[in-house]
Amino acid sequence: MRDISYFQSGSSDFWIEMIVAVLFLLSSFSCLFASLGLLRLKSFYARLHMTSLLTVGSFFCIDLAYMLNIKAFHNVFPYRGIIFLFFLFLITPIQFMILSSSAFYREMVLFVERQKEKKKINFLKGKKEKK
Amino acid sequence: MIENTLLFKSLFFQNILHIGQAIIVLSFIFTFIRFIAGPRAHDRIMSYEMCYHLIVMLLISYAIKNSSEYYFNIALVLGLLGFVSSIALAKFLMRGEVIE
Predict the structure, then answer these.
(1) Lowest-pLDDT range, A90-94, A97-101, A122-126, B41-45?
(2) Inter-chain contact B60–A63, Cβ cutoff 8 Å?
(3) Which pLDDT belongs to residue A129?
(4) Is A39 on the interface with B (CB under 8 A)?
């Protein structure tokens, strides 16, 4: 660890650490806002929209922080970070899109079943259908 | 292999890492509340995915803190597993079966 003179020196290491810290805090706060939206928003689709956008942003920020840290301080090429970035940008929107489509399909099936039940009840009561 | 791990980190940076990890744990609590009190199955699956994402975030934060690549490998594998499990659950919701 380093003492206070490290902060006053203004070396390049200090600024790289500052950038990493800002990226990390940005990603953690976007995670917090995503979970708050998950808790507080009323519609399912609004919740899904908020979490999908903010999780992609948080992953992007934290992966940039990791790559910058390991390249600047240890001089290791961050190929795992690049793989992670590629996979997440490929995967996370697909994941949430499939979930939303399944939710829509399920709601549609429930709606059709309710309509059929209403028709049956009207038929048993002897009412005519509205055209 | 990386050596001299903690020598490069200042105290300020370590404090900020701890604050970020605390924020991630707080958001984990919020998602768990939604997991318990979700009105329908979709909300539960969505909060489950969010839990996976938060665990991956925590693992990458440990990787930044210790400057090790092992945590990052675990995070990569967990991300892929979360994708597969969420797609299986979504397909189960849609069709009633996973493998047809």
Answers:
(1) A122-126
(2) yes
(3) 63
(4) yes
- pLDDT(A119) > 50: yes
The residue assigned the tokens 């940076």 is B13
Nearest to B60 by CA among B75, B40, B46: B75
The CA-atom distances, in angstroms, between A36 and each of A47, A65, A86, B32 are 10, 24, 27, 11
pTM: 0.83
All residues at 6 or more sequence positions from B60 whose CB lies less than 8 Å from its CB, including other chains: A62, A63, A66, B71, B72, B75
**Length of chain B in residues, anyone?**
100
Q: What is the mean pLDDT of residues B51-69?
A: 88
**CA–CA gap between residue B73 and residue A39 (Å, rounded):** 30
**Contact status, residue B64 vs residue A69, Cβ threshold 8 Å:** yes
Q: Decide if A38 touches B, using CB distance below 8 A.
A: yes
Q: Which residues of A touch B19 (CB under 8 A)?
A: 25, 28
